[in-house]
């Protein structure tokens, strides 16, 4: 698999808090942006998966803040698929400053695979192509 282009985000003014730094809740949104971007780059746009009846809700999300991101900073949000089962996946994220490479935040999300009726599905059986693409990415440095 060829190396992918990192997901880049310019910190917006509306994302800041009273101290002029990015509000902590925005990092979870950034994780989602990077995850959706990665799925598209792997050849499975989220919209296509939904059209096939597969949804991937978040079961848990966590973030550990190492240093601040301020309005105007440009960061990379690097997702990494760290585990996959037929019914779940877990991703880790690193938010780093584009200029310095300093790590600003690390985090993780876990997800279930559900059908439109919100019932768990084993994608290894129901969406084998998606399972195989994800399996190929597990644990790999894609960026």
From TrEMBL:
<dbReference type="Pfam" id="PF13279">
    <property type="entry name" value="4HBT_2"/>
</dbReference>
<dbReference type="InterPro" id="IPR029069">
    <property type="entry name" value="HotDog_dom_sf"/>
</dbReference>
<keyword id="KW-0378">Hydrolase</keyword>
<protein>
    <submittedName>
        <fullName>Acyl-CoA thioester hydrolase</fullName>
        <ecNumber>3.1.2.-</ecNumber>
    </submittedName>
</protein>
<dbReference type="GO" id="GO:0016787">
    <property type="term" value="F:hydrolase activity"/>
</dbReference>
<comment type="similarity">
    <text>Belongs to the 4-hydroxybenzoyl-CoA thioesterase family.</text>
</comment>
<dbReference type="InterPro" id="IPR050563">
    <property type="entry name" value="4-hydroxybenzoyl-CoA_TE"/>
</dbReference>
<dbReference type="InterPro" id="IPR006684">
    <property type="entry name" value="YbgC/YbaW"/>
</dbReference>
